[in-house]
Amino acid sequence: MEEYFKNIGPIKYEGPNTKNLFAYRHYDANKIVLGKPMKEHLKFAIAWWHTFCFEGTDAFGGPSATRSWNTSDPMQTAKNKVDAAFEMMQKMGVGYFCFHDVDIAPPGKNLQEFFQNIDVITDLIKEKMEQTGIKLLWNTVNLFSHQRYTHGAASSNYADVFAVSAATIKKGLEICKKLNGQNYVFWGGREGYEWLPNTDMKFEQANIARILKMAVDYAKEIGLDAQMLIEPKPKEPTTHQYDYDAATTMAFLMKHNLDKYFKLNLEANHATLAGHTFDHELAVAACFGALGSIDANNGETILGWDTDEFPTNALDNTLAMYQVLAAGGLGKGGINFDAKIRRTSFAIEDLILAHIAGMDSYARGLIGAAKIIEEKFLEKIVEKRYQSYSTGIGKAIVEDKENLKTLSDYAMKLKDVEIESNHVEIYKSILNDYVQ
Ligand code: XUL
Ligand code: CO
After folding, report:
1. How far apart are CA 48 and CA 86, in angstroms?
2. Which of 286, 297, 371, 435 registers the highest number of CB atoms within 10 A of its CB?
3. Cβ 233 under 6 angstroms from ligand 1
4. Would you state the pLDDT for residue 303?
């Protein structure tokens, strides 16, 4: 078997002072943080598409990277990618992976051939999983790249496209069951509109809900107990994606009585595209008890679009991990690097270095967030801000003992309403002390 990441690894923790680029400086898998090892807080996953399929292309140019797993035979290439993936994950000590159906197997001439190819490759993946103990964090199906999905998948104006989408999701759920996936993801690729005046939005959303119900029913039928996840995104590729952000997606799920079956897979770059910070999206999901999993990356705010960079902003990651810890963790979810190397980082070792960068940055985030929690830095600020609700009239309000008439009587008798400053600048400055 060919070695793809030659002379590299195993990648070990060497601490922040190491000069070795091929070492973890902050991610120390077995170090106990808030009572459990880092590797359990940070269930990192490698994304097949960005790591083994992406070759550095952008809108202005073709591949910048050459990968030796590529051959003229698509099935051989797919098999080589399995070897490369497990070699990389083992060398890095990464315990999970994620993929779309199209990432792992060639399309063949028709759906039948595609599904056969998937069966062959998933046999191979299953074997490797058994040998290594590496797990499938989630899989999904790509219902957006093929020409047939030009007008959407479940939201397409063509019933045959809806049917092919259903068949593909059925296969996706079967793959998840076969590989014991912890989660199953729906990202609404082209489920949105290009131009509102030619779109029946209510009809399209009802059809998306229909296919999700079918998926829930089929998962039950085959005994799949993976957590179902929806991944919000506000735009790209459509002008307006229906699953705009966490709040919009929860409203959609609740309207269609699907909220008990789904949690959210939140992606940092999607949050910023929606005009939110990433921790905002995590907090919204947590409010609904729907914080499922993370697609870790960074957007480039100057460019604006979905650049899917590796996450290296320690403050952002600290605030994100704070939300995760405050919500009690991610359950079956994990931290999938939905991130790709820059076009200029075309060397094979960049795949490893970029993941080290992302893992170290999240480890910094975890350590900083744990310190915030241990020292109750933010908890104390929040507690103080809302203290008027812990006694007197405030307590009565949150205990639902008041109404507009009783509050009106109370308010009329008030001489002065006193409020205090937030002192936000100094607390923002002190927060920097927690960033590792
Ligand atoms: C697209 C995106 C997808 C999903 C899975 O922006 O994030 O890769 O994570 O389909
Ligand atoms: Co994503």
Report:
1. 11
2. 297
3. yes
4. 87
Q: For 163-177, write each residue's pLDDT tens digit.
A: 999 999 999 999 999
Distance between CA 49 and CA 102 in Å, rounded? 9
Q: CA–CA separation, 285 vs 291, rounded Å?
A: 5
CATH 3.20.20.150 segments of the chain = 32-375
Binding residue per annotation — 295?
A: yes
- Residue 262 in tokens: 């789904």
Distance CA 310, CA 296 (A): 7
What's the 47 CA to ligand 1 centre distance in angstroms? Answer: 10
Grouping H, G, I as helix, E, B as strand and the rest as coil, residue 260 is coil
The pLDDT tens digits of the residues spanning 367-393 come to 999 999 999 999 999 999 999 999 999
103 lines ligand 1 (CB under 6 A): no
Q: Confirm or deny that 267 is annotated as ligand binding.
A: yes
CA distance 336 to 297: 9
Q: Which of ligand 1's atoms lies nearest the C-alpha of 144? A: 10
164, 209 Cβ separation under 8 angstroms: no
Both structure tokens of 397: 């309000």
Whether 272 has a pLDDT exceeding 90, the answer reads yes
Which residue, judged by its Cα, is nearest atom 10 of ligand 1? 187
Sign of the alpha-carbon torsion through 267, 273, 278, 284 = negative
**DSSP structural state of residue 377:** H
| E-state strands within 242-286 | 262-267
Alpha-carbon radius of gyration of the chain:
24
The superfamily in CATH containing domain 32-375 is Divalent-metal-dependent TIM barrel enzymes (3.20.20.150)
- Cis check: omega of the bond before 232, within 30 degrees of 0: no
How many whole angstroms separate alpha carbon 164 and alpha carbon 153? 8
Confirm if 16 and 314 have CB atoms less than 8 A apart. no
Residue nearest to atom 3 of ligand 1 (CA): 187
272's tokens: 């910023």
